[in-house]
Amino acid sequence: EKYLLNISYAATMHLHAIVRSLEVIVCDHCAFHEIFKLLHYSKVDRDNIRFIRIGTCGGVGVEPGTICFTRNAMTETLDTMFPFVECGQIYRVPMILSKPLTDAIIDVAKEKGIPHEVGNTLGTNDFYLGQGRLDGAFCNYNENDKRNFLVKLSENGVKRSSLELRTKPIR
User: Fold this and answer.
1) In the β-sheet with 49-53, what is the strand arrangement from edge to edge?
2) 51-80 pLDDT, tens per residue?
3) Helical (H) or strand (E) element with 107
4) pLDDT tens, residue by residue, 8-45
5) DSSP letters spanning 54-81
6) Cα pseudo-dihedral 169, 36, 7, 130, rounded to 10
7) Gap between the terminal Cα atoms of the chain
C-alpha cells in the first residue's frame, strides 16, 4: 500500500498509520528530521520512503506557471555535492533524487497536457544573493554579473531555483 500525505507540523502525528511503503509530500522542510524520526520509530523501511517537494520556485528561462521537474540538484556554486556541517566538520554528500519517481510524475504531466520542463535545480541558502537577485538589502554584484550568472545557470541545464532543494542520503 502507498499513502500520500500532506504533512505539516500539525499533521505529523498521523504518521502512525503508515505500514509498508510511503510516498510523502513534505510541505515544511523544517520538519524533515522529525518526520524521519517518526518513520524510524514506526519501523518504516527507509528504502521505501520517497519525499516529494512541491511548491513555488524561481524559473530560469521558463514561462511563468510552467511546472519544473528536477533531474539533478546543484548548490549555488553549481556543485552536485552538498557540504553538510556536522559538529564542526564538513561532509560533502551527493544530492540524490529518485529518477523512477520523477519519471512517473513527468509521465502524468505529459498525459494531462500540463506545461512542464525537466532540468536541474539550483538549491540556495539565500533567496536574494544565492539566486543572483538585485532587489535584496545588499549585494556585491551588478546587473551584468547577474545576467552572466543566469547564462551560466542556463548552460548548466538549470530550470529552477529553490531554497528547499537540499537532500541528504541516509547513512
Assistant:
1) 4-7, 22-26, 49-53
2) 777 777 778 888 888 899 989 989 888 998
3) helix 99-112
4) 333 333 333 333 344 444 444 456 777 888 888 888 88
5) -S--EESSS-TT-EEEEEEEE-TTS-SE
6) -40
7) 25
